[in-house]
Design goal:
It is globular, with a radius of gyration of 14 Å. It has a single domain, classed as Jelly Rolls (Sandwich), CATH 2.60.120.10. It is built from one helix and eight strands; from the N terminus they run αββββββββ. Strands 1, 2, 3, 4, 5, 6, 7 and 8 form an eight-stranded antiparallel sheet that branches. It is mainly beta.
């Protein structure tokens, strides 16, 4: 059984901080669950270009407000607490936070731990791992 608290993960190398967001990766590839689980904060007033070409992602909004714009068709979807969105087609998108967003995210295949977006908004398939 794997038991971790968000608080202990936030104080470890599992917390990754970027310009527009931070992500605490509570489950990773090394945990052998077949997916990774993250609590991610998107900073208020930011816009982040994301295109997970190598991963599928499901995102549940815990708190905050924002929107996601799919670049293929220009559709805009509001995000508020209780919203679930799924990037089931490797959707290239812009994620905007009008109020700081707290999100629960699941990735398949699982992340290794150190991933950050490259210049195209992509996470690589392999990156350095993080210890529990």
């Amino acid at each position: 059984m794997i038991v971790r608290t968000l608080e202990e993960c936030e104080k470890s190398e599992r917390r990754i901080v970027s310009e527009n967001w931070e992500s605490t990766r509570m489950l990773l590839k090394d945990d052998n669950m077949g997916y990774s689980f993250h609590i991610t904060t998107i900073y208020e007033g930011t816009e982040t270009h994301i295109w997970y070409q190598n991963h599928l992602e499901s995102v549940y909004c815990i708190s905050g407000e924002g929107e996601i714009e799919t670049l293929a068709d220009g559709k805009i979807y509001p995000i508020k607490p209780g919203t679930l969105y799924n990037l089931n087609e490797h959707d290239e998108h812009l994620l905007r936070a009008s109020k700081e967003l707290k999100l629960a995210c699941v990735f398949n295949p699982p992340l290794n731990g150190k991933e950050v977006h490259d210049e195209n908004g992509v996470y690589p398939l392999e990156a350095d791992t993080v210890e529990a």
